[in-house]
Design a protein that fits this description.
The protein has 140 residues and is of the alpha+beta class. 39% of the residues lie in helices and 20% in strands. It has a four-stranded antiparallel beta sheet with strand order 2-3-1-4. The structure holds adenosine-3',5'-cyclic-monophosphate (CMP). Adenosine-3',5'-cyclic-monophosphate binds next to loops.
Length: 140
């Protein structure tokens, strides 16, 4: 498998509960390297733009409010098959369906406050990491 990069967010429900280190430990144990990371307060405009693909969904307003309700940690993860690997270690969107040992099974509160976001394709990963990071901030 080729080395790949993906984009990740540790969401406000997790930063509020001081879980950044615990989540990073799960990511690293899964073979992902954190090659960029910063803690930020997303603006409403950033959250609306980042989740623009979901603008027509009934949960969009609540999702934007949640994502700006506290700090998030945005990250670039690197590793073999990183997009799929991160999706596997995150677990299903709804924690009640997530497999044992996944981040969402371990930590998520509900389908909205689900602790982490991860890109769903290499193409979206490239777009999403460029949304938050300059190329010079990503150090492999
Ligand atoms: P994420 O991977 O960040 O992508 C979109 C987010 O919308 C998702 O995780 C959830 O946090 C949130 N969300 C809230 N309600 C729903 C829902 N009914 N279906 C899918 N995603 C939802």
């Amino acid at each position: 498998m080729a080395t790949e990069r993906t984009f990740s967010i540790i969401k406000p429900d997790a930063t509020r509960r001081n879980l950044t280190g615990k989540i990073n430990a799960v990511l690293e144990a899964a073979g992902l390297r954190i090659v960029a990371q910063k803690r930020i307060q997303m603006t409403q405009a950033q959250a609306e733009s980042f989740y623009g693909v979901h603008a027509a969904r009934p949960f969009f307003r609540d999702l934007v409010s949640f994502m700006i309700s506290g700090p998030v940690v945005v990250q670039v993860l690197e590793g073999d098959n990183a997009v799929a690997r991160n999706r596997d270690v995150m677990g299903a969107t709804n924690p009640s369906s997530a497999a044992e040992g996944t981040i969402r099974k371990l930590f998520a509160e509900n389908i909205e406050a689900n602790s982490v976001h991860g890109s769903d394709s290499a193409e979206n990963a490239a777009t999403e990491m460029a949304f938050f990071f300059a190329a010079t901030e990503i150090v492999g």
